[in-house]
Every structure is written in structure tokens, then in C-alpha cells.
Design goal:
Helices cover about 40% and strands about 20% of the residues. The protein has about 400 residues and is of the alpha/beta class.
Length: about 400
Amino acid sequence: MEYTHILIRYGELTTKGKNRKTFIATLYENIKRKLYMFNGLEYEKNYDRIFIKLNGNNPDIIKKELNLVSGLYSYSFVVKVENDLDKIKEISLKFALENEERKFKVKAHRNDKSFPYVSDSINREVAGYILKNSKLRVDVHNPDLLLQIEVRPEGTYVFDNAIKGLGGYPLGVGGEAMLMLSGGIDSPVAGFLINKRGLTYQAIHFASPPYTSEKAIDKVKDLLKKLTVFQKEIKLHIIPFTDLQVAIYDNADESYAITLMRRMMYRISDLVAREEKCLALINGESIGQVASQTLESMNVINEVTTMPVIRPLACYDKLDIIDLSQMIDTYEISIRPHQDCCTIFEPKNPVTKPKLDKCKEYEEKFDFESLIVECVKNREIIKIKFAEEKDEYL
């Protein structure tokens, strides 16, 4: 079928009340930016749909790009014809003939009330024409082919497909957050999910040279490079964490090391986030997955910040997280054998139910506040931008 247009549906955006226009306008601009490389596309936005005129562009290539746009609920490749019943019948039959020997159903919606046929009449007229000129048969309960017809003032759109998009909210409507990016499987997925809710993010990574290698930093850069297909530019803050990490091991029981490290990471992330005007912290924690992610641990670790901490993966199963990481193409990078500062210093028997007073007792033994200031002051900042060339960081 030679499609003429793409019909885009808003889904959840239609529930946004007074913010609806802003959300739809943002989605519209995001789609145009995503498809900037296609010449000749023409766009039309209205209350409940966005239409894109293809003008000969390849739908399959455009599909790959649209599947990366958050806030887009679903879309269809369609053929537009005049509001003329005979022309609607002809193009509907053409769709049907591409699906010979199958059961079908016609579902029409008359948005243009000046059109002389109501929806049910269109259904009967089109179905009758297809039955007369093909071997298909009608099955309104379990059709193989659902032929949909939308009659609108500017023309009629006929289609037999509905492709599910990312859903969620358009990127940029929710403000900016700070993603705590380890380099493992979970945190890149958390970044992807937070984009789906309309938030952009900066990333913060904790490095402990010489215990962690430069390859661990390259791994983080490569992960962010993958994620720039959803968010075109991501600012990365690399924190020199070695001195603070050594101080923790010198002054605390090993079983509390991870808890104390996480408390320090939250303090640093809070400071950097506030400096960058970010509104929340994001991480890849999943309840009970490791010792620092029990509710008792989260409560003690969270005590050091008043900034909202969003955990998109809190209730996800590990296998579900892996599936998502494979979908966004970060999994193979995440499993590279280059350890981050948490895994390389992981204690044998970490405490799963840490006590707040015990943490504070250990922290009073050294001047962690000065070390935190040095971490923030000496951080390296890199901007990762989307580029067609592989391994290019701008």
C-alpha cells in the first residue's frame, strides 16, 4: 500500500485539562525535531490528531524514529482520499485485496457531521462493496483485518494498522532531574523511563581511580550515547570519589561501607543537582534487589537529602529490567566487565537493616563534609550529544 499520511494519536495527553495545549505543542515540536532529516514532510496539528504528509518518504524508516518519541501514544500509516463515498469504497477495497481470504470488519468514525452518511451507514456501504468484490467475509467479533475510516472536514483517512508508541508525556514538559548513573543495567533504564514521563536529566557518575579504570568511564559515556536517541544532549558529571571512599573504609565497619557510600553519593548528587537547578534525583534502585535497596537501607540513605528521589524501577523484576535494557540497546554495554566504585569495593557481608545512629557515629569520625566539597569542586563535566557517527562525543 502506498501511504499518503501518518496519523498520530495523543492518548494520555488528552486528560491534561488546561495543560493539554502545551503538552500537544511540545509533542508536535519534538516529532518535527526527530524527523528533521526527512525532506518534504508536511505537518498539521489539531485538537485530537497530528497528521504528517509523507510526500514519498519511506514509512518504514520514519517508523523507527517515531518509536523513540515519548508522549506519542500510537500512530497509523494511512491513505487520504476526498470525502466521497465511492472513493472511500475504492481505497477500502484496495486495502482488503491485500488481505485476501481473511475475515474483516469496517469501523468508521464520522468526525465531519456534514458528510451525508452516518458511521453505521459507512460501515455497511464499505463492507458490502468489499464483500461483492473480494473473497473476504465479515467477522465483527474476531476480524483478521480491522479496516478503519475517519471522515474529517479536510478529507477521509483509511487505514488498517495502529502502531503503539512509547506513550507517556512529551520530553521537556516535566523539568530536569539528576540521574545517578552507575554503569550497570538498571540506571540507564531508569533514565529511559524518566524521559517517558516528560523529564530531561543530567547524569552523575562516581569514579574511584586507580581502583576503577578509564574503561569504566568510557562505558558510562557509551551508555549515555545510546540514550541520546531519546534525549539529544545529556550533561555528565564525573565525581572523583576515591578519597571519600577510602575514608569510609578507614573509619567504619566494612558491613556499613555501602550504606555510607550511598549516603555520601546522595549528598553529592543533591549538591550538584541544586547547583544545576535540577528538581529531583533519579536512580535505578529496585526494592530488595541488593543490600542497599531494602526499605530499611533506603530509609537510612534517603535521610541525607530533602530533594525528591524518584525510583522508576522500584517495583520492577530484574528480568523485566533486562528486557527493557535490551529494548533500548544498553544491555550489552552495561554487562561489560568494567567495575564501578560500588562493585569494586563491595563488602562480603553488607548490612541489610542499617541503623541511622550507627551511620552517624561512623560519619563523625572523619571530616566527610570537606571531602564532599572537594568532590563537587573537582568534578569533570562532559556534554554527550547525539551524532550519527559512532563513538563521537561532542
